[in-house]
Specification:
Rossmann fold, six-stranded mixed beta sheet, alpha/beta
């Protein structure tokens, strides 16, 4: 009897594990909501024409649904891709870029492991007020100064506006109170472009792509149930934007899709990415 019970418990545990992991499997790397210890690598089928190494620095907007691994999975499944990608992430929940520079190992990792690009993702909401803009300006400027001797290029990750049901639009304690989603999306895009212009940095316009996705009929939701963090579809869209930036390829020929994403959803997200 005990043996039967143990077998039943083991079977139930395996089923639970399979159900919980299934949405995160299917690519070269299993998706996690945390940083991978190793550097994730794409070895192209063809002879690599170039190698691009990337360090993502940010918070949960980067690590929820594992944007860095999603990028590598897309690149690994594109047989015509000739770029060898080497990708690492250093993130911390709720952190701003100042915290990431001084209180985590992100800068030390950049100093000891040479990369071509450091993707800088500032804490959400920084663009809502002049004080927030100045805060982000200083944080990014400090990163530029720290990376200059390393010959590593900083790159701005443009975040997105919250979904329409988010409390930031209905709670008076938030700077976005009373705004429409489209207005907030315009603010984040304009502020990020302004930040990039002042500092001479390129911007990967993920927020603009999110707003395009909201306008495409039948496109999947790009934010999750909290109306703030990305859904799996939102992370896939962000990964497509970075894939194009680093390789020049759209992702249209990539066969990887996160588990449960339909071909129609992937096509809508590819359209939203600008392709």
């Amino acid at each position: 009897m005990l043996r039967v019970v143990l077998i039943f418990v083991l079977a139930a545990a395996l089923v639970w594990l399979g159900v919980s992991l299934a949405p995160r499997m299917g690519g070269r790397y299993i998706l996690r909501n945390s940083d991978h210890d190793e550097v994730m690598v794409v070895d192209p089928v063809a002879e690599p024409a170039k190698t691009v190494s990337v360090l993502f620095v940010g918070n949960s907007l980067t690590f929820v649904n594992d944007l860095p691994a999603m990028l590598v999975n897309i690149a690994s499944s594109d047989r015509a891709n000739s770029t060898r990608l080497e990708v690492k992430a250093e993130t911390y929940p709720g952190a701003d870029l100042g915290y990431m520079r001084t209180q985590t190992g992100a800068l030390a990792w950049a100093q000891t492991h040479h990369v071509d690009y450091v993707v800088l993702q500032e804490r959400s909401g920084w663009y809502e007020t002049p004080e927030g803009f100045d805060f982000a300006l200083k944080n990014v400027s400090d990163w530029i100064d720290a990376l200059r001797p390393l010959n590593e290029a900083p790159l701005l990750f443009e975040v997105w506006s919250d979904g329409a049901e988010s409390s930031v639009y209905s709670d008076k304690s938030f700077a976005a109170f009373g705004k429409a989603v489209q207005e907030d999306a315009g603010d984040v895009a304009a502020s990020t472009e302004n930040l990039g212009r002042q500092l001479g940095l390129p911007v990967v316009a993920v927020g603009v792509a999110f707003e395009r996705a909201r306008q495409i009929k039948g496109a999947p939701d790009i934010v999750g149930p909290d109306h703030h963090h990305p859904s799996v579809a939102g992370t896939y869209l962000a990964a497509l934007m970075f894939y194009r930036h680093f390789t020049g390829r759209s992702g249209a020929e990539a066969t990887y899709r996160p588990w449960g994403m339909s071909e129609a959803d992937a096509a809508a997200l590819l359209e939203a990415s600008g392709n």
